[in-house]
Amino acid sequence: MWDYTDKVMELFYNPKNQGLLEDNQEPGIAVVFGEVGSIACGDALRLHLKIDVDNDKILDARFQTFGCTSAIASSSALTELIKGLTLNAALQVTNKDIAEYLGGLPEAKMHCSVMGQEALEAAIFKYRGIPIAVHEEDEGALICSCFGISESKIRRVIQENNLATAEQVTSYVKAGGGCGSCLANIDDLIAAVTKESALNIATDIATAQEQLQRPLTTVQKIALIQKVLDEEVRPLLIADGGDVELYDVEGDRVQVALQGACGSCSSSTATLKVAIEAKLQERISQKLLVEAV
Ligand code: FES
Question: For 106, phi and psi rounded to 5 degrees?
Answer without folding.
Answer: -55, 140
